[in-house]
Amino acid sequence: ASITGRVIEEGTNTPIAGAQIMLLPTLRRGSAPPFTDRLPTAITDREGRYEFLDISPGTYRVNAQRAGFAALTQAFPEIAIAPGQSATAPDIVLQRGAVITGHVFDDAGQPLAGARVMALRRPNVPAGIDFPANLLLPGGPDAQTNDLGEFRLFGLQAGEYAVQASAGMLAGPPTTQRATTTVATYFPGTTDPAAAQMISLGPGQAYDDVSIRLI
To answer: What confidence tens digit (pLDDT) does each residue in 86-139 have?
Structure first.
């Protein structure tokens, strides 16, 4: 059997070339995976199209990744194919990833290398359901500061984010003789998640004014 499809950009329907496509089998209880080694992958062409040929009949999902675009947040529809069938998958729509950049400083105001930085989001819960105001969940890949204390969070979906920084395992020498230690600090400078400033981002938008001094 075979599966073909294409990948386009959200909002413009522009074909996305060079996207990596992975074919994921949907396993039912008691069934064996159709692949004996690694999962099949493909790369989209200039027209954003991809194809998987000579695959075993079954039910599949398709996943796509491309640098500069946010990861898919919703499960792709299942595609069921019979022996010898050629199926066309629904278009995969990727959103151009948003970016947050900035600097992290230690409690003395010096650039901090090796700090861990995370983009966090408030959970999306149905109306009428209460949840703690300080509840924040990871909203994308985290980052580590370089030798200048700089960081770059990329591939973010459009939405509102809080930024948290903490001293990582590589952030400076041991402080066993210090009477205090730094704690996770939220932009613009608070240890209270409920008081963190939320940064609103649109698709592909960049926010580059984040400066965090650890408390």
So the answer is: 999 999 999 999 999 999 999 999 999 999 999 999 887 666 777 676 789 898
Q: Looking up tokens 């809080």, which residue turns up?
A: 162
DSSP codes, 11-57: TT--B-TT-EEEEEE-PPTTPPPS-SSSPPEEE--TTSEEEE-SPPS
Token pair 């400033």 is at which residue?
A: 197
Q: Are 62 and 4 in contact (CB under 8 A)?
A: no
Specify which residues 116 forms β-bridges with: 144, 166
Q: What does the block give as tokens for 85? A: 């069938």
Length of the chain: 215
Residue 195 has what DSSP assignment? Answer: G
Largest CA distance in the chain: 70
Instruction: Give the span between the Cα atoms of 150 and 117, in whole angstroms.
Output: 10
Q: How many other CB atoms are there within 10 angstroms of residue 96's CB atom?
A: 21
Contacts of 87 (CB under 8 A, 6+ apart): 1, 2, 3, 4, 79, 80, 81
The structure's pTM equals 0.79
**pLDDT at residue 14 above 80?**
yes
What are the pLDDT digits (tens) for 39-75? 889 999 999 999 999 998 989 999 999 999 998 877 7
